[in-house]
Fold each of these.
Amino acid sequence: MISDDDLYRLAIFLGSCAMMMIVLYHFLDVNATEDEPTDAVNQKTENSAPLAESGTSQLYTTIKVHPAIGNRLCHDLNALVNSSV
């Protein structure tokens, strides 16, 4: 049977491995590049509207999220801005 000391060492080892895997995953995720065709980038730029405009001041925010979440977030923000104007 496994002793308490062995179980403690195993838990510390597995927990440390899990933390290293999380840090490695985030490092790779942040430094990953997404190659999009130039036409797709130009089409996104043409179809996108500014988040908010009020007189001479404009609000632009840049965040990095998953594309599906980003599309839904932009849709919700545009709907919110358009409804309050």
Note: The mean pLDDT is 76.
Amino acid sequence: MRLPPLAVIIRALYTFSKFSRPRAYQRPSKNPTLKSMPSFPLFGSLFSSSASASKMSHPDERTPDEWRAVLSKEQFRILREKGTEPAGSGKYDKHLPSEGVYTCAGCNAPLYKANHKFKSGCGWPAYFDSIPGAVTRHEDNTWGMARTEIVCSNCGGHLGHVFKGEGFPTPTDERHCVNSISLNFSPEDKPGQTNDKPESKA
């Protein structure tokens, strides 16, 4: 009496696992396990951030080669390829000036004022707000989870992510978790100024 249910279960398991190529597991010599990796959405998302972000247009539009000409290799990886620096490694993590402005390391657009920054202990620079209009948010579904990515509104450079409702004693209860490499700092609180970065050739 137990055999029919077991057979049904085996048949169902085989049908379900067929989608992920069970032969890669049963016959590794003919179908290497790596062949099944593209069928997992997570692996594809590790190397390409939200498609909506890459299609957005910004005032400062440059080609990848133009960005490589003005950014270091690590700046390009984070700003243009949406990478992340190791926690605690950034020069602005524990940087808490009383005045000044943080600008985009790619285009020098002003992003945050010094009084927006607070100590969060997360390992990355944290800000509870940004200069109005300086930062753009959009949904980021990479790494198999829904987050809110923040980018420079002027050039689209990846800054990090914003998190809400963590209970920090700030006016907004938000934490803009930003890569230090995505930023520069000017001790003069003049958010309207930009430095002499090459202009967009778009």
Note: Confidence is low (pLDDT under 50) at residues 14-53, 191-202.
Amino acid sequence: MAAKIEVRPPFFIRLANPWPGMLSRNWSASLSIRPSSLSVQFIMAFFSPSVLLHVLKPALLTQSARGHKMKAMKSWSGGVNYPGFKYYPRPGEVDPPYKPTKLFLIQRIKPFAMNTVREKRYLNSIGLGEDKVIGSYAIVKNTTDMNAKLWYIKHLIKITPITTPDGLPVNDDYSSYHLDHATGVLRIIPELKPDEKRLELQENHHNSPKKMKTDVWKKHARQQWLAQWW
């Protein structure tokens, strides 16, 4: 039995279910297309009804499935309200003891493309936008507004609390600190602190007027090469 196709100009094709036993009895759906009769003729001429139903069924049933999902979520009970979102714990789920940290280490684990506008805006706001590759890191504060953003994009990122067993940096001196990306532990390693005398000598060398700049000796070397000095 062929599927019944009704054309409703200018934008819709309506498909009726030819096999009531395979899908729901009152199954029907609409597909939005461009207002071109050639598109309709191409679909009807080159695709059989079974192929059309096989291809269009997932896309056409998404709306009804989403509607049932939203209805089921509204009927849930036991949700815990947090600032910016609502969390539904599993039966018997108890949060382990946790001491909040001041900072989070965020790693993007999913591509930037094919996300919603809101998700892309949140990724850009924390510094993991389109210009960053998968696996890039960013450090954010543990605030109410930031947690609401992270909850919305939690499927795109990995969150690691940053712990500071040796204390926070003093006077913005990060020269001897090391952050472990795997565990989020910020440690003080005295061996990493540079020698002040060597830094001073290096600075004096770079600012010395006797030092020939890179572009100058490259220019002279090129001139000698073109002049065939040998």
Note: The CA atoms of residues 10 and 37 lie 9 Å apart.
